[in-house]
Records
---
Amino acid sequence: MLQKYVAEFLGTFALVFIGCGARAIVGDTSNFAGIMLVHFTFGLTVAAMIYTFGRISGAIINPALTLGFAVSRRFPWCLVLPYWLVQLAGASFASFLHLILLGNKAVAVHFGATLPKAGIGVALVLEFILTFFLMLVNMATATDRRVNSSAAGIAVGFTILACGLFGNSLSGASMNPARSLGPALFAGGQALATTWIYIVAPLAGALLAALLYELIRGDEEEAKLVVEDVPARREDGDRQKLSS
């Protein structure tokens, strides 16, 4: 299990360190070019982490998605809390390094923390909806045998990009409790006070999407776990060959 925990830590660390780091370097994201750069960075980073760690830990790097996979029975419940802990640790460590390496640039943008710019109500609804669709895409690419696994990184990365471009100026388009809470712990103030939005809404959105996908999936035989035991399957295959 250590390999899985390290993979989730590194994946979430990369998401926050590179994505929120880009936010700190860009500074003002009121212009379209700045918004594009930041959310392209988030999307490409997630895509890269999926291709890097997908076979090891599932590259979930998101507590909301972790819960969704567990509720849909595609991920072990016993790993939910450990995954949450290492995901939050990875995000927090990234923000800690931003404090050391970027200093005032990181402070000026609240360490990349997400804020409900359009109001609490709008942020709650928007984060719920955006995470809902992110979870649907993840359910299809990670738990359905009919979807080519090589498409996972591209599909999820572009979903994050599209959601980010839409929600940036409204809620920040977090869709990820660890991505919001890690920076907020260092930013404090309003960022920390409103973090509950980016915990409650994504968890609820992911939960509904996971259950809905299970209802519309169709054939149960087409379902698979987020992380399948590939070595075990190979050993079983070797035994069958030897016995025949």
---
Amino acid sequence: MPKTESACLPAHSVLCLLTLLALSTWTATALAQTRTDSPYYARANTFGIFTAYSGDSSHILLGDAQNRRLLDFGVSYSRRLYRNRIVNWQYDGELLPVALESDPVVHTVTTQTSPVEWTYSSNTREVAACVAASGSFQYGSPGRIYSGTYVQTCTRQWNIGEGISPVGMQWNFLPRHKMQPFLVGHGGYMYSTTAIPVDHAGSFNFTFDLGAGIELYRSKTRSVRASYRYHHISNHETASENPGIDNGLFQVTYAFGR
């Protein structure tokens, strides 16, 4: 009799089909886990809350004003632009609703004793750092000599302002590690209610900073940054005086996002 073909698959064919289904399910699961559990510590969007402080200023590169202090409180936003094994390149902008700048004030009390007695006091902000001093003076011409004493003390004036740095970049290196060194730089402006750093300088100033730091990730979404930056403030010759301020600024940021 002629052989008739069975309508059912052979047992080994069924086993192969089940094996292929199992492999497909395992592969899909592995790919999903790979997409979810990225080896990178590098958020796509990052928000930050920070404070920054500098206790002194000097002629580091461009500024001449001495003994100025900065205290900032602000927020930041970062957006990832490019990432590989070596670098995580991000746009980074900062907003400073509270930007405080402090100038040394020279308080001088002058007492003239001859030819008539009078006392005069003044407060001035100089480019140089304030130095306490006292002494006597005498000047004039024969027949009319002016003499007296003076006492010079130092106080400090805090100036309230706000700022924004809409142009900024940050480069994190070794983005697969929890501890990442980074470079950072910004450009923007600062507006203060008083001309800084001296009386005839401007209330509107341009700013920029360049620095480096360390970012320590506590998880894939949260981290802490610490950086040290060269920070410059200048009115770019838009006022009658422009001594400029150079600070070494230390900043700590709490960052979070996804």
---
Amino acid sequence: MSEALRARLAAVRERIARAAARAGRRAEEVTLVGVAKRQPADAVAEAVRAGLGAVGESYLQEAQAKLPEVVARLAAEGLPAPRWHFVGQLQRNKARHVAALFDVVETIDAPALGAELDRRAAAAGRRLAVLFQVNLSGEPQKGGIGPEELPALIEASGAWPALEPVGLMTLPAAASDPEASRPTFARLRELLAHAPAPPRGPRLRELSMGMSGDFEVAVEEGATIVRVGTALFGARD
């Protein structure tokens, strides 16, 4: 398991580097988030030992069981925990637990959700980075706001002192050809370029887009965060 995972991590990083070079960018501009849903704690800990600095989870209940185990294993070896990203759809009634566990929440798509997460983060004495999820595919099963709603959501974030808005996130429509995602990624990049600055901080800078099947295209189109699961961890249980 260890050697195979390390080899996959190296391969993903090499692919990111080549994609960045094609776009005239540096590989260091791209954060690799290893999406570990349905992966065991030992695999996550091994990936962190191999140098993975950010781990994403989609399901709160799974994360509540797994994250403390991963952190304890790493701490026993004198290793720091990764930066934890919540990348699943967030419901307001889960905000308290997400605020306690995660460092970054990538799926804010409503003023009320942001306000509840802010309240819970403040109560826990934490400050979280957040991304606004934009639905560019028009698929109702995907979370996210429409592009026309983005300015109002950014404006609403001025009332969230415990949250730091840092960027935008999207999920393109599923496609077998990675090139099919390119227009969506390009559109999110344009939205970021023209988005107003949050009332409480600097302009948004992060673009979280691209997964195992299309992250190279995403990097070519400006992604600063890619969320890679199966290409890194292998098939899920």
---
Amino acid sequence: MRSLNGIFHSRVLIFSLSFLLILFANYYQTSVNRPVVSLSKEQTAFNFSIKTLKLTQFGHSRLTSSLLWMLTLLESDIEHYKGKANSWMYYRFKTIAELEPRFYLNYIIGGKYLSIIKDDVHGANELYSLGLEEYPKDYWLSYHAGFNATFEMDDPELGLKYYRNILGTTKLQRESPNLVSLINRLRVSHEDIDLEVAFQSVYEVYRSLEEGDIRNHLEDTLYSIRAQIDLTCLNNHDDHSICKKQDFFGNGYIYQDGSWISRRPWKAFNFKKKPR
């Protein structure tokens, strides 16, 4: 009988201690401020070894690349990459290209994502180059590779190299007539580019995209070019009737302390090659 009472009391003691620990844990959870650990996708992303994938996919490279493509899209983020090498998404897209070189969407969508959203412009250029090795005269790959080089890398000479693939095509005349003027100016001199032509060229890319992150990010470029054109006109001409007084979003410019300014920050557009 004593042994049974001992077991009973032991279990009551264990239960009581457990209950007290739970209460303490709950109090600690709700009352104590702990530092928040925030890691970017760039720090947590896992990139697959191409050698390992080739050894384990057992001839199903198309299936493996498709699964990796879907996983990459599900994990995608919209943070600009500021490192010295390439973003995590570049390595994913490059791995997919090595598994399935004819995977066209990987080049066209991956390139636009790297260029406009991730700001990994050199990674985008390499991906477009890989795509053009498989599709040498493809219109849209050449079009977006030229756009990335000219407007994102600020390298019009490289942009012209890509644009030459589509110069003279009926599709260029039909799809992007303003781009013809830009290409012709690039051929003569990239130091004297009409910003209105540049604006229309960027706007055509913007207009061709569906609603989403890529299209939204192009708005910053369009806003900057529009503001540069309009504010230069307003601040340098007495006759303001020849100048536009509304920015890209339809908001009026502000006259303050003797000069016209925009409602939001913008950076001047120029054709100056960015260092690697």
